[in-house]
């Protein structure tokens, strides 16, 4: 008699959460076949005693069960008219796909599906955007979506352009990863926001600390990882459509996504698109002239499984046009001084309009990605990914009528990137899991006449290896990773006014990470991670020369800059019980040769347009340390108190004149995030159906005045401490089988007048006032 | 059983669809971008009743936005001059464009130290100050500076701070002798 046999295929559906209380969100997908003929058994009955659930397999012999609990034995009984009764006891630690082959006289055997998790808990500090927050901020830009996470702030140019800042660092030190593709764009620019449509993401995680081993040289301080929802498993069609409106700016957004898996075969498709339009925003006392925006994005994905192979092809298109606050388009010192003194913005178009006039920016970003996955055997898998990215950014400045009417941009940046990643990974071998891989990248950057950074051609190669030791039920987990990156650049200028450049640069360095997780109990765990990461200086830091119109400053690079190297250590305590949830992270990031832009006291350069504040790229050793905390506790049924805190201290070792001969002393780093606290109440009520929820949250954000100012002083004193209030509410209805979620999101509920320290436009205008957003999301399909 | 034909054709369709996205992006942007640069400002003084006829030019030959040459304006004392400003973008004189858009432009003259008075600024089509041409009157021998600013789209031409954007700002050392 053949014993019952089950073939395991791990199906990781990107929802693994380890280390918290009993996880009951595992899924089991089963395929029932006849053992001898291998024919699928359609309409077989599947009954699971423990959850009293009885379903039948479809015409291809498939069934799926959701919301199963981790490490709980489930007795699965399968019966079919043509075959004998079959019983199997399963215990899941992971989402799994199991083949059931019905034979006669099967003996009952308990089988534990071994841990085959591919998505492991990072040993680094991480924050995930909660589902409710993700839905509530749909329609806003990526920065706004991340703002609520502790340790994350925004570097903004007004309200339209927002870049994420992780533990004080941003731009070239943070990788934005969308569906496994690291965004390659002009991210060096302080006024260049990430070209990502948050609607494509179902899950957003912010990795804090040195993420260089996973994501390369652009992730020295962390990464923002966006993952789409997994493609549908069963034949059919499903999707969602969202419609939203915002009162401030009279903005509207429409977005939708459809997944389709045809009945036969193993192809599945997804089509997704977003359109946004908004007009001038309004601060509490006046309109913010020329802050309209328009966006049109599209993405498509196709996935095909064939035996051991899996092919994925995807393409995304991001297109955005936005106005730059007219009142911020000044620059010469006299203009700046007048703006600082003025209580209302100068040259302001104090009315509402949807017209996007100069100065404005237009961005287009295209991604084409092909991914290949080959399961060599039960343990080893090979993956290869190729992605092509094209980024085009046009900056339109004001000018004489002949210029404005010509519809030509003053500066155009174009970046082509080709990246190839290969990896060989293995599931646990004697409890070690990990892999090795390599990456090759090629880039071409063209800047039109008028741009103040040069053209360059870049080639890069990397090699990495990581291993993780994990053995249930041992409470320890270790991780170690090593990576080597090499970058070569050929930099040239096309006569944009600076000295003619023709230089070859090369940088190479090792980065590494090591971490440990210790689980005290199912509710309490601690992790410690230390990593060494580096990044080469970017062309703008080396060779910039000229007026950066977007910022209204004259900037000059330093060709002698060396690579930045950082030791980043972070420790996290994670305590999650039924009633309480606490995550506390402390970190220390020691950066050698930290590169930053600084204005020596009152330094100006006499340009044709008048004296402009002059900023120079300089390099000093720096230390950034701080604390991120988030807390929530139930105080009554359905009612919880929430709190979050982000504290940061950034020091540098600098000399008064910047010369290397002079003795160095401690000083503060410029443009570091201020301390901020969030606190509030959340009320949740569950309806009759499982996902029928009503949810209301009131959250206050208090941002403290930045008192840690560098000795050069500030052009304008730091903005005072302020508190804003936000309200979120959502309710889910059921329209037959389809789900309709209606939500309300109010920002700056009390219409407070405030400015942020990290807002480059804080010299000119206040941040927007109250914004009431309404949205409706319909989830349809089977 | 899977349908090979359908699979291949769907994949082909997807490849074609994605290829069309990139035909727009794949070639280098051939469009020449327009750069509004003011690279030269020449102040032409003609003495009234005297033979004085001289031009003083501030130049930025590299177009990097920084004045290279700002000469000293050395002019005789106790004289009246008719002054005309020439503005250049590279080799092209853009006075014509500025005159055409005179309502959107304003020349502002500011004297410090020297015995020099600037008056009689020409008016624009609305009768508001424009100042492409002006009259300069020198007094006794002295030294100082003269700052000339060109405001583009000023918010209020008669205000102390006319607003708008500064198209150029040049400060000439002045020597009245």
Give a description of the structure:
- Helix content of chain A is 4%, strand content 56%.
- Chain A is mainly β and 782 residues long.
- Chain A has 2 domains: 6-112, Carboxypeptidase-like, regulatory domain (Immunoglobulin-like, Sandwich); 226-781, Maltoporin, Chain A.
- In chain A, the strands form 6 sheets. Chain A has a 22-stranded antiparallel barrel. Chain A has a 5-stranded mixed beta sheet with strand order 4-3-6-7-9, with no helix packed on it.
- With 177 residues, chain B is mainly beta.
- Chain B has a single domain (40-176), classed as Immunoglobulin-like (Sandwich).
- The longest helix of chain B is centred in the N-terminal third of the chain and has 20 residues, at 4-23.
- The N and C termini of chain B lie far apart (100 Å).
List the main descriptive attributes of the protein structure presented here:
heterodimer, A: 782 residues, mainly beta, Maltoporin, Chain A, 22-stranded antiparallel beta barrel, 5-stranded mixed β-sheet, 6 helices, 4% helix, 56% strand, disordered N terminus, B: 177 residues, Immunoglobulin-like, 6-stranded antiparallel β-sheet, 4-stranded mixed β-sheet, 2 helices, 10 strands, 15% helix
The total number of structural domains of chain B is 1
**Architecture (CATH level 2) name of the largest domain in chain A:** Beta Barrel
Q: Compute the gyration radius of chain A: what is it?
A: 27 Å
Give the biggest sheet of chain A: 22 strands, antiparallel, barrel
Please, what is the average pLDDT of chain A? 86
**What is the helix content of chain A?**
under 10%
- Counting DSSP H or I runs of 4 or more residues, the number of helices of chain A is 6
Largest chain-chain contact? Answer: A-B, 60 and 52 residues
Specify the CATH class of the largest domain in chain A.
Mainly Beta
What is the CATH topology descriptor of the largest domain in chain A?
Maltoporin, Chain A
Distance between the terminal alpha carbons of chain B, to the nearest Å? 100 Å
Please estimate the helix content of chain B: 10-25%
The helix-and-strand class of chain A reads mainly beta
| CATH-defined superfamily of the largest domain in chain A | TonB-dependent receptor, beta-barrel domain
Distance between the termini of chain A: 40 Å
How many β-strand stretches of chain B?
A: 10
Largest sheet of chain B: 6 strands, antiparallel
- By CATH, the architecture of chain B is named Sandwich
Number of helices of chain B: 2
């Amino acid at each position: 008699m053949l014993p019952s046999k089950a073939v395991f295929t791990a199906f990781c559906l990107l929802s693994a959460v380890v280390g918290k209380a009993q996880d009951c969100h595992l899924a089991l997908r089963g395929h029932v076949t006849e053992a001898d003929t291998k024919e699928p058994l359609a309409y077989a009955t599947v009954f699971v005693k423990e959850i009293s659930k009885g379903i039948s397999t479809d015409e291809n012999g498939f069934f799926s069960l959701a919301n199963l609990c981790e490490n709980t034995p489930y007795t699965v009984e399968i019966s079919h008219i043509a075959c004998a009764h079959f019983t199997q006891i399963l215990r899941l630690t992971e989402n799994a796909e199991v083949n059931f082959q019905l034979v006669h006289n099967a003996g009952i055997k308990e089988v534990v599906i071994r841990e085959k998790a591919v998505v492991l808990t990072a040993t680094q500090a991480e924050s995930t955007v909660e589902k409710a927050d993700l839905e509530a901020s749909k329609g806003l830009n990526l920065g706004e979506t991340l703002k609520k996470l502790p340790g994350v702030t925004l570097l903004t140019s007004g309200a339209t352009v927002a870049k994420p800042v992780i533990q004080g660092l941003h731009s070239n030190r943070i990788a934005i990863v969308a569906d496994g593709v690291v965004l390659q764009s002009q991210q060096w620019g302080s006024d260049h926001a990430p070209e990502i449509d948050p609607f494509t993401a179902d899950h957003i995680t912010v990795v804090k600390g040195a993420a260089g081993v996973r994501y390369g040289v652009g992730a020295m301080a962390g990464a923002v990882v966006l993952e789409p929802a997994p493609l549908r498993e069963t034949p059919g069609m499903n999707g969602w459509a969202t419609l939203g409106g915002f009162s401030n700016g009279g903005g509207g957004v429409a977005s939708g996504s459809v997944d389709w898996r045809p009945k036969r075969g193993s192809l599945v498709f997804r089509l997704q698109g977003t359109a946004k339009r908004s007009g001038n925003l309004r601060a509490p006392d006046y309109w913010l002239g020329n802050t309209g925006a328009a966006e049109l994005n599209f993405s498509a994905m196709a996935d095909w499984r064939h035996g051991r192979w899996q092919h994925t092809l995807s393409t995304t298109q991001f297109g955005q046009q936005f106005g730059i606050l007219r009142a911020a388009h000044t620059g010469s010192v006299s203009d700046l001084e007048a703006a600082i003194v003025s209580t209302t913005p100068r040259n302001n178009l104090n009315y509402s309009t949807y017209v996007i006039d100069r100065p404005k920016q237009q961005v287009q970003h295209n991604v084409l990605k092909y991914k290949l996955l080959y399961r060599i055997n039960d343990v080893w898998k090979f993956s290869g990914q190729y992605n092509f990215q094209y980024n085009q950014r046009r900056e339109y400045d004001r000018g004489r009528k002949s210029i404005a009417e010509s519809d030509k941009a003053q500066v155009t940046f174009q970046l082509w990137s080709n990246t190839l990643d290969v990896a060989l990974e293995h599931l646990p071998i004697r409890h070690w899991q990990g892999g090795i891989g390599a990456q090759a990248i090629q880039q071409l950057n063209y800047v039109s006449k008028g741009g103040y950074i040069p053209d360059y051609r870049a080639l890069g190669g990397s090699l990495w290896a990581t291993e993780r030791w994990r053995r249930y039920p041992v409470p320890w987990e270790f991780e170690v990773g090593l990576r080597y990156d090499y970058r070569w650049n050929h930099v040239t200028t096309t006569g944009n006014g600076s000295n003619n450049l023709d230089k070859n640069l090369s940088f190479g360095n090792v980065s590494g990470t090591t971490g440990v997780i210790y689980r005290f109990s199912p509710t309490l765990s601690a992790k410690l991670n230390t990593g060494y990461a580096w990044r080469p200086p970017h062309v703008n830091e080396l060779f910039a020369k000229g007026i950066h119109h977007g910022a209204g400053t004259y900037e000059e690079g330093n060709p002698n800059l060396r690579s930045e190297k950082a030791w980043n250590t972070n420790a996290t305590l994670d305590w999650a019980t039924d009633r309480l949830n606490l995550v506390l992270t402390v970190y220390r990031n020691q950066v050698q040769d930290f590169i930053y832009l600084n204005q020596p006291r009152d330094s100006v350069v006499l340009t044709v347009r008048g004296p402009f504040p002059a900023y120079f790229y300089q390099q000093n050793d720096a230390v950034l340390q701080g604390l991120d905390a988030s807390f929530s506790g139930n105080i009554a049924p359905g009612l919880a108190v929430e709190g979050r805190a982000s504290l940061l201290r950034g020091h540098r070792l600098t000399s008064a004149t910047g010369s290397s001969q002079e003795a160095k002393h401690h000083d503060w780093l410029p443009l570091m995030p201020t301390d901020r606290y969030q606190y509030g109440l959340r009320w949740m009520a569950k309806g009759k159906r499982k996902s029928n929820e009503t949810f209301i949250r009131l959250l206050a954000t208090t941002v403290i005045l930045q008192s840690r100012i560098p000795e050069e002083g500030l052009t304008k004193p730091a903005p005072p401490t302020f508190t804003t209030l936000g309200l979120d509410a959502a309710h889910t209805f059921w329209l037959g089988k389809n789900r309709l979620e209606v939500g309300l999101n109010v920002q700056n509920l009390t219409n407070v007048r405030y400015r942020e320290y990290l807002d480059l436009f804080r010299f000119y205008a206040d941040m927007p006032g109250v914004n009431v957003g309404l949205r409706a999301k319909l989830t349809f399909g089977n | 059983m899977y349908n090979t034909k359908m699979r291949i054709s769907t994949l082909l369709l997807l490849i074609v669809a994605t290829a069309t996205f990139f035909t727009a992006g794949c070639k280098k942007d051939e469009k020449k971008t327009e750069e509004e640069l003011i690279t030269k400002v020449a102040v032409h003084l003609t003495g009234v009743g005297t033979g004085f006829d001289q031009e003083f030019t501030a130049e930025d030959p590299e177009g990097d936005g920084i004045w290279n040459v700002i000469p000293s304006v050395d002019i005789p004392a106790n004289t009246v001059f008719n002054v005309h400003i020439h503005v250049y973008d590279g080799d092209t004189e853009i006075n014509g464009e500025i005159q055409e858009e005179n309502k959107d432009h304003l020349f502002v003259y500011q004297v410090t130290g020297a015995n020099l008075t600037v008056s009689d600024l020409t008016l624009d089509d609305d009768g508001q100050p424009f100042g492409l041409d002006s009259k300069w009157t020198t007094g006794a021998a002295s030294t100082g500076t003269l700052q000339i600013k060109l405001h583009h789209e000023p918010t209020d031409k008669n205000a102390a701070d006319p607003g708008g954007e500064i198209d150029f700002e040049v400060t000439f050392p002045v020597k009245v002798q």
